[in-house]
Fold:
Amino acid sequence: MFSFSNIRYGYTDKLSLNNINLSIKKNEFVCLLGPNGSGKSTLFKLLNGLIYPSDGQYTFNDQQINAHFFKNSVNAKKFHQQVGFVFQNSDVQLFNTTVYDEIAFGPRQMGFPEPEVNKRVIDCLTLLNINKLENRVPYHLSGGEKKLVAIASVLSLNPDVLVLDEPLTGLTAQAQENIISIMQGLHNAGKTIIMSTHNFTQIKDYVTRFIEFSENHTIVLDAPTKLVLTNSDLMVHLASM
Amino acid sequence: MKNQKYLNMPDWLSSPENYSPVKQKNTFLQQNRGRLLNLLSLFSDKTETTSQPLNRQNSFIQLLTTITLILLTSLSRNISFIWIIYMYQFLQIALLPKLNMLTILKRIPINLVFVLLFILPSFFLTDAKTVIFFVLKTNLILIIVSYFMNTNTFFDIIIVLKKCYFPDIIIFIIDITIKYLKILSESLYAMTSAMELRSVGVNRHQYQSLSNLFGSLYLKTKSTALEMYSAMEARGFTGNYHFTRTKQRLNLSDITQTCITIFLITLFFN
Amino acid sequence: MHIPDNYLSPQTCITMFVAMAPVWAISVSKVKVQIKEKKETVPLLGIASSLSFLIMMFNLPVPGGTTAHAVGGTLLAILLGPWAASLSITVALLLQALLFGDGGILAFGANAFNMAFIMPFVGYFIYSFFKRFNQEKIGAFIGAYVGINLAALIVAVELGIQPLLFQDQGGNPLYAPYPLSISVPAMALTHLLVVGWVEAIFTVLVFSFVKKVSPNSIYLAGNHPQSNVKKMLSRFYLIIGGLAVLSPLGLLASGTAWGEWSASDILPTLTQNGLKAHMPAGMAHGLDFKPFLPDYSLFGVSLPLGYIFSAFSAVIIFIILFKLVTHEKSKIS
Structure:
């Protein structure tokens, strides 16, 4: 589905991604690990077409993704519908005056008739168990609630891929568990999930593959979970990050 | 228990979306993201020029020179004089590192287009000489300003304003403005990106969405201000601000620049 | 709306600086009082300047595929109060001029006058007038629309008087070449039809968002709104009065600076050059002033005189406009 070959990003003396080779298949549940500033967030921006690689090739469904591809608004819009992104800071993602409008923002743009939009919004609210927030103002919600609304607002687009930048950071234990089980549910429903976290132990029983970034902006580990779980040294290393 | 609720995954969410967007030429979100990125890049690296000994000029002298040169250019009616200032400016630009040189030179054609668009219709009112003179002078002023912009950072500006004896409160406000310009631009950049990623079709309430973006930014601004104030108060802020007015020493390049400027002034009046 | 350098003569620029100086002085003193009551005003002002900066650099789509940007003068005045808004916008304009080359450095006074004085104050007064009738949104809309259009008109006047006042011996303009008869309609047309709507719609929508989400975040004019408004008005009159005095000074300043031609030399040159010749501003101050009332005129009045006349007319219209607003207010209360 996704394929990166020899990707570099940044200036030669200040790279934030260095020689990244990576491919992700449909319905994988990938977790990125690594210290802050190791390039995870840059990779996410690249993945979502917010920035383009300085060097190397990025393809999505065999289509090369670059500035030229995004010049065509039809390509850009289709791509953004297929790949959903949940920002680390939910505040930047919520700008409507009610939770309902927030979730309806995508489907309305896709041109669905209002009953269909309504169905999608209600389904998302129910799925994430946030029906009671329907008429609240997103600005005043708690951190955990904002995160759920942000996820719902992306889900309503029905993306094939869901990218989540540190979805567990700054939330209560209860909220974290809630979000993990939502990701698991979506994975079971056939979605491709790519996320990043600092908490290996919490997520190790759900994801299918681990990728570790190092401080010099390269990938130092790329292994399926099965393999990681049989290697106790590796487990200790990842858990100590 | 918990997993049970995901058995009710709605049909539409478990099947691929069959969506084909309508073609629409609307890239202003991308444009704005680009502009914000440019702005943000200004906060990162500009140390290059200042590390070059030749350009480590006193910002205050530089501002005075810049204003004097703009004034002289603006008042001059002598093509030779304009020519001399052009030469002086390009000489200075030539001494800059390549990267800074390019940023200054790149602005020239864009600016020329704007000036020409403004002035060309006036061919009907005046003669060609006037039009050319106007374009030459306006362009020269832009180069003078670009040079100043490229050799001074936000922080140099604050030092200059302190030297000009701006009221402390104004300097304090400018200080905060510059610090928060970075933070707010980062926020706005992220918000614009987030909106762009969810703009998968036609937004019939574009202005509404954009205005909401700025409304949220304002509210965040306000709460940030309150937080910042409590932080300041916790550090013993009483409502007074005092700045130590640091002394920058004059070096050879400052003296040369001042001499050239004085020479240009005398030349202007002859 | 940002006037670059060399479009206005340095003499005009200095006049505009002088005109703006009392506004800045009063703003600083007003804001200092505000800080004594609410200390968090200081960080808020700084952060508001950065917000103002970002509003002015953010392109909004306009029908027809192009973009325009809002200034946010009225919006900030409604949200923060007009004095605080004026200071914030001034700082934003200063940074734009010094660090980004948006708007001239010499023209900074003129730009501040248009965008950090006229726009927030006019917009705010219209807004507070409608607020009396609980029609805040209409007030924000009309305030923003009128505010930006008035500012645009003043920009047009500033540009339009340049060819009348500053010419070389051949009567060719030295700065912006378009006379009032071109600059005013050009600015009026674009602002009445496009930019004004962008500003007004943007203002009312952001205002509604803030009002809906967090109604306490909107500026309230002190504990005694009535007296406060009155005080503000008296200051406003003071500034307008000062301007009336200054506008003819602007004329004089243009003459004293560069007396490179003697008055008697220039008269024949002017007439020889026929239609294109205008009265150079330098003459307004000169000895030969009295007999020289040529045909070249603005709406049938000789040019320097026409300039003074229009400046005074503008002032009078201002006074009438604000008298009307305050009169309505006192009647209701």
Notes: The longest strand of chain A covers residues 14-24. Strands of chain A lie at 2-11, 14-24, 29-33, 55-60, 63-64, 83-86, 161-164, 192-196, 209-213, 219-224. The two ends of chain A are 29 Å apart (CA to CA). Chain A touches chain B through 51 residues (CB under 8 Å).
